[in-house]
Design goal:
Blueprint (H helix, E strand, L loop, with lengths): L6 E9 L6 E6 L8 E4 L3 E8 L12 E4 L25 E7 L5 E7 L10 E7 L17 E7 L15 E4 L16 E4 L4 E8 L6 E5 L4 E6 L2 E8 L2 E3 L4 E7 L6 E8 L16 E6 L42 E4 L2 E4 L2 E4 L11 H6 L13 E4 L4 E7 L8 E4 L4 E5 L13 E2 L1 E3 L6 E7 L4 E7 L2 H5 L3 E6 L4 H4 L5 H12 L4
Parallel strand pairs: 1-4, 3-8, 9-12, 11-19, 20-24, 23-31
Antiparallel strand pairs: 1-2, 4-6, 5-7, 7-8, 9-10, 12-17, 13-16, 13-18, 14-15, 14-17, 18-19, 21-22, 24-29, 25-28, 25-30, 26-27, 26-29, 30-31
Bound molecules: CU-O-CU linkage.
C-alpha cells in the first residue's frame, strides 16, 4: 500500500503473470501494482522516480490520477502533451495536489503513449470516513479492490492494431487460452455472514468486461467516484477506466465461487471461454477447501444499465433541462480513415509543447496547438456535448479529465434524463443508433483531455482538449514546483533520440 506522500519508483522487470514471461513496467518493484490509499481531504505529494531502462518499451513517463479532479492543480494531472512534458529516464517529478472533498474509487496509470498497457497501472482509493453508504456494509475489510486488466504477450509499442489481448488479469493474475493451466488464480477471501464493500476497477487498455461472481448479488453503490442509490444486479459491464463499488454479502454455503470477467475481444477465443480458469478468479469462503469452484453462472443475469444509476443526492443535471438548452452546446462527429480517428475532421496529434505550457506562456487561445483539437470554453457555463456512436472498433469509452459529467442519455437508451442522471467520468458512446449526451459546468480552469480510453485509439487521434477559462488558468493553478515542472521539458528536449 502506498500513501499520498510516498514515492513511486518505476523500473523494468520480467514477470510471467499468465505463464508467459516478458518485460513489464513495475511500480515499487511489483507488477501487480500497489494500491494508493488516501483519505478524503488528503494532500498528495507523490514523487515519481523514473528508473525505466528497457529499450523495447517506452522509457519516458507521466502518471495520471484518473478521476481526481485536480481543482487548482491542472499541472499535476499527468497528461503528457496537455499538462506536462514527460519525465525522462533517470529523472523524477513530484505530483502535488489535493483530493478536495472527493472520495471514491479511482486509479492511476501512465499517460505517456500506450505505456500503461505494459503495466504502469494500479488502483487508487480515497476513503471517506463519513461515506453515505456506511450503513450498508461492515468495515472489516474495505481494502478489497478487484482490478481487471488486459494482458499482451507483446510490448505495447508493437502491439498490432487492432489489439487483441492474450489474457485477462484479475488482480494481476490470469491464464491465456493456450497457456499453462497451473498458473495460480487470484483469491478473494470472505468470511461467512459478513458484508463487504468490493471496489471493481477496469485498468483495461481496450476490452470491456462482463463481470460477475457466481451465486452472489452485487449491490452497486458507487460509480466512478460518485455514490449512487443501491441497485442489485448479478452482472456489470465495465468499460476501460470505469469503476464501481458493490456490497457483497457472504450469505452462500461455505465453498469456492468463480469470479468472472469476460472480455469483448481476445486471442484464441478468449472472448467466449471460462474453461480452465480463463477470465477467472476465485471467491473463497473461510474454511472452504483450497480447490477450484464447482459453481456455475447465474442465468439469466440481471445486468446493470447505466441509465438506471441515480446519484445518491438525486441531483439534477446542471443548467436548463432540454437538448440544446445549455450555455454551450457542442456536437461531435467521429470518423475513421487511413488508420486514424477524427473528431470533427481533426485527428489529435500531441503537440511538442504541452497545452498548459503554451497557455502559461501567454499564447492566444486561437493559436493553441494542436490546431483543430482545442475547444476553448468560458468559465461558469453549462456545456452540453452530444457524442454520436462510432461503430468502427467500438464500443468507445470516452473519459474527461478535470470533471465528472452528467450522462443525460446513455448508450442503448432512447430517453433523456435531466432530473437525476448518473454522474461519471468515463462513458461508453455506443454504436450507430446511439446519441449519448453529457453535461458539465466549467468550474475548473485548465486544459482537460477528453478522449477515447482505448489506448490504441488515443494513439490514433481519438481525442480533443477542452481549454477551460484560458485567461483564468494561471491564477487558479499556482504551480508549487514550477521550475521542476518546466525543467521536464528542457530535459526531455535534450534527450538523445
Ligand atoms: Cu485514465 Cu486520459 O485517462
Amino acid at each position: 500500500i502506498i500513501n499520498p506522500t510516498d514515492t513511486l519508483t518505476l523500473s523494468n522487470i520480467r514477470v510471467a503473470p499468465d505463464g508467459f514471461e516478458r518485460p513489464v513496467v513495475a511500480v515499487n518493484g511489483a507488477h501487480i501494482n500497489p494500491l494508493i490509499r488516501a483519505t478524503k481531504g488528503d494532500n498528495f505529494n507523490l514523487n515519481v522516480v523514473n528508473n525505466l531502462d528497457d529499450p523495447t518499451m517506452l522509457r519516458s513517463t507521466s502518471v495520471h490520477w484518473h478521476g481526481l479532479l485536480q481543482k487548482g492543480s491542472t499541472h499535476a494531472d499527468g497528461a503528457e502533451a496537455v499538462s506536462q512534458c514527460p519525465i525522462s529516464p533517470g529523472h523524477s517529478f513530484r505530483y502535488q495536489f489535493g483530493t478536495g472533498d472527493h472520495a471514491g474509487t479511482f486509479w492511476y496509470h501512465s499517460h505517456f503513449g500506450t505505456q500503461y498497457c505494459d503495466g504502469l497501472r494500479g488502483p487508487l482509493v480515497v476513503y471517506d470516513p463519513n461515506d453515505p453508504h456506511k450503513d450498508l456494509y461492515e468495515v472489516d475489510d474495505e481494502n478489497t479492490v478487484i482490478t481487471l486488466a488486459d494482458w499482451y504477450h507483446t510490448q505495447a509499442p508493437s502491439v498490432p492494431a487492432p489489439a487483441t489481448p492474450d489474457s485477462t488479469l484479475i488482480n494481476g493474475k490470469g491464464r491465456s487460452v493456450n497457456g499453462p493451466k497451473d498458473i495460480a488464480l487470484s483469491i478473494v477471501n470472505v468470511e461467512p455472514g459478513k458484508k463487504y464493500r468490493f471496489r471493481l476497477a477496469s485498468l483495461s487498455c481496450d476490452p470491456n468486461y462482463r463481470f460477475s461472481i457466481d451465486g452472489h448479488t452485487l449491490k452497486v453503490i458507487e460509480a466512478d467516484g460518485q455514490s449512487v442509490k443501491p441497485i442489485d444486479v448479478t452482472q456489470i459491464t465495465i468499460f476501460t477506466g470505469q469503476r464501481y463499488s458493490f456490497v457483497l454479502e457472504a450469505n452462500q454455503p461455505v465453498a469456492n465461487y468463480w469470479i468472472r470477467a469476460l472480455p469483448n475481444i481476445g486471442k484464441n477465443g478468449l472472448a467466449n471461454t471460462f474453461a480452465d480458469g480463463v477470465n477467472s478468479a476465485i471467491l473463497r469462503y473461510k474454511d472452504a477447501p483450497e480447490a477450484n469452484p464447482a459453481s456455475s453462472q447465474q442465468s439469466p443475469h440481471t445486468t446493470l444499465l447505466e441509465q438506471d444509476l441515480r446519484p445518491f443526492n438525486e441531483a439534477p443535471a446542471p443548467g436548463v433541462a432540454g437538448r440544446g438548452n445549455a450555455d454551450v452546446n457542442l456536437q461531435f462527429n467521429f470518423a475513421f480513415r487511413g488508420g486514424k480517428f477524427f473528431v470533427n475532421d481533426t485527428s489529435f496529434e500531441p503537440p511538442e509543447v504541452p497545452v498548459l505550457l503554451q497557455i502559461l506562456s501567454g499564447k492566444n487561445p486561437a493559436d493553441l496547438l494542436p490546431a483543430g483539437s482545442i475547444y476553448s470554453l468560458p468559465r461558469g457555463k453549462v456545456v452540453e456535448v452530444t457524442l454520436p456512436g462510432l461503430a468502427t472498433a467500438g464500443p468507445h469509452p470516452f473519459h474527461m479529465h478535470g470533471h465528472a459529467f452528467s450522462v443525460i442519455r446513455s448508450a442503448g437508451s432512447t430517453v433523456d434524463n435531466y432530473d437525476n442522471p448518473p454522474v461519471r467520468d468515463v462513458v461508453n458512446i455506443g454504436g450507430a443508433n446511439d446519441k449519448v449526451t453529457i453535461r458539465f459546468t466549467t468550474d475548473n480552469p485548465g486544459p482537460w483531455f477528453f478522449h477515447c480510453h482505448i489506448e490504441f485509439h488515443l494513439a490514433q487521434g481519438l481525442a480533443i482538449v477542452f481549454a477551460e477559462d484560458v485567461d483564468g488558468i494561471s491564477l487558479a493553478n499556482p504551480i508549487p514546483n514550477r521550475q521542476e515542472w518546466e525543467d521536464l521539458c528542457e530535459i526531455y528536449r535534450d534527450l538523445p533520440a
